[in-house]
From TrEMBL:
GO terms classed as biological process: DNA replication; DNA synthesis involved in DNA repair; double-strand break repair; SOS response
Protein name: DNA replication and repair protein RecF
Keyword Cell division: no
Protein role: The RecF protein is involved in DNA metabolism; it is required for DNA replication and normal SOS inducibility. RecF binds preferentially to single-stranded, linear DNA. It also seems to bind ATP.
Family under the similarity heading: Belongs to the RecF family.
Organism of origin: Maricaulis virginensis
Residue ranges of domain AAA+ ATPase in the record: 17-360
Chain sites annotated for binding ATP: G25, A26, N27, G28, A29, G30, K31, T32
InterPro entries, per the entry: AAA+_ATPase, DNA-binding_RecF, P-loop_NTPase, RecF/RecN/SMC_N, RecF_2
Gene Ontology CC terms: cytoplasm
Compartments, record wording: Cytoplasm
Taxonomic superkingdom: Bacteria
Keyword Signal assigned: no
């Protein structure tokens, strides 16, 4: 992995083997920035949602002209050289084996799952954050879901703009709504499919360090599909709901019509028979890990390539038995997990099966 002018790193060159990576060091040392760099190897704005324009290294003379992240990695297409970067605050560029490529290609090559401290109380926080987290799990297994979701949001924004302006041509709105319905039903179907697999994976694992969870999706289109409506009928129904909702959506200035943008991920802690949102911070963190690890297992089984796991401060709220459980579960997936923590001792349960790096003021040193 090589970084050029990314966040606090002017230049970094890391040689790694495929085992998990434990990064330890003081606050502000540069641990999360390494995970963020890797998160740009899939489409999107990275794990801090900063986007390509926000990550160039800054010093007293201002931001660097260009930044880049380069990695040689095992992907679904075998060993591939991936490069991403941007120049002069511009759009992000992608290279695959040295050739320019569309960003979307990355989703197909590299399954990736990340967890950050910002998600610690995911189940008690805003609905949209939960859905985003779940959608990312779905993307890791089904890259087409990311494309459908992006396309859906684009059309939804266009329709909303027309409604906000108040003088839209009904035929034009019909066309946009039918496009929204097509992408929306594809999204809902991908989510349901992923949910069933994920739940199966969770159920197959005995209750251990991480709690069993019962998952459901509360969404209008998901409900239609779960009730057995075929895709065509579900699209017609959703398009009709959008048509009926025009006046209300226009008055509200946002899409109140129930569609895949308003779906809720419902999770319960099975053993406690409690809504995940009512669980303690540590229990919520454990539940999030239940989901992420279950998806990692499903992916490793399904695609042959274990996903890259970026777990920022995952150990912070975990007690010693759960930290041991985390090590066991990660090692069982065969994933290269990248873990951060302020102290090396947090990774003790991995023993010799992890590569240690000490991070200190943007210097990264391998340690025995
Ligand atoms: N664009 C940038 N240019 C230069 N330095 C940056 C830039 N963005 C962030 N930094 C700095 O990078 C440093 C490391 O940040 P990072 O989030 O990686 O730390 P960390 O080791 O994960 O810390 P913590 O344990 O507190 O989470 C911070 O001091 C931050 O101010």
């Amino acid at each position: 992995m090589r970084l050029t002018d990314f966040r606090c790193y002017a230049a970094l060159d890391l040689e790694l083997d495929p085992t998990p990576v434990a990064l330890y060091g003081a606050n502000g040392a540069g641990k999360t920035n390494l995970l963020e760099a890797l998160s740009f190897l899939v489409p999107g704005r990275g794990l801090r949602s900063a986007g390509a324009e926000g990550v160039a290294r800054k010093d007293a003379s201002g931001p660097a002209e260009a930044w880049a992240v380069f990695a040689e990695m095992e992907t679904r297409d075998g060993e591939v050289r991936l490069g991403v970067g941007a120049r002069n605050g511009g759009r992000r560029e992608t290279r695959i084996d040295g050739e320019p490529a569309p960003q979307g290609e990355l989703a197909r090559l590299v399954p990736m799952i990340w967890l950050t401290p910002a998600q610690d109380r995911l189940f008690a926080g805003p609905r949209a954050d939960r859905l985003k987290f779940f959608d990312r799990l779905v993307y890791a297994a089904d890259p087409a879901h990311a494309e459908a979701a992006t396309a859906y949001d684009k059309v939804r924004t266009r329709r909303q703009r027309l409604l906000d302006e108040g003088q839209a041509d009904p035929a034009w709105l019909n066309a946009l709504e039918s496009e929204m319905a097509g992408h929306g039903v594809a999204m809902a179907a991908a989510r349901l499919d992923a949910l069933i697999r994920l739940q199966g994976e969770i159920d197959a694992r005995p209750e251990g360090a991480f709690p069993q969870a019962d998952l459901a999706l509360d969404g209008a289109v998901e409900a239609d599909l779960a009730d057995g409506l075929d895709a065509g009928a579900a699209e017609d129904r959703f398009a009709a709901a959008l048509r009926d909702g025009r006046r209300r959506d226009g008055a509200a200035g946002r899409t109140l019509t129930r569609g895949p943008h308003r779906t809720e991920l419902v999770a319960r802690h099975r053993d406690k028979d409690q809504a995940a949102g009512d669980c303690s911070t540590g229990e919520q963190k454990a539940l999030i890990l239940t989901l992420a690890l279950a998806q990692a297992r499903a992916l490793a089984r399904q695609g042959g390539v274990a996903p890259l796991l970026l777990f920022d401060e995952a150990c912070a709220h975990l007690d010693a038995p759960r930290r041991e459980g985390l090590a066991r579960e990660i090692l069982a997936t065969g994933s290269q997990a990248w873990l951060t923590g302020v102290e090396r001792i947090l990774f003790e349960p991995f023993a010799e099966r992890v590569q240690y790096f000490e991070v200190d003021a943007a210097r990264v040193e391998r340690s025995a």
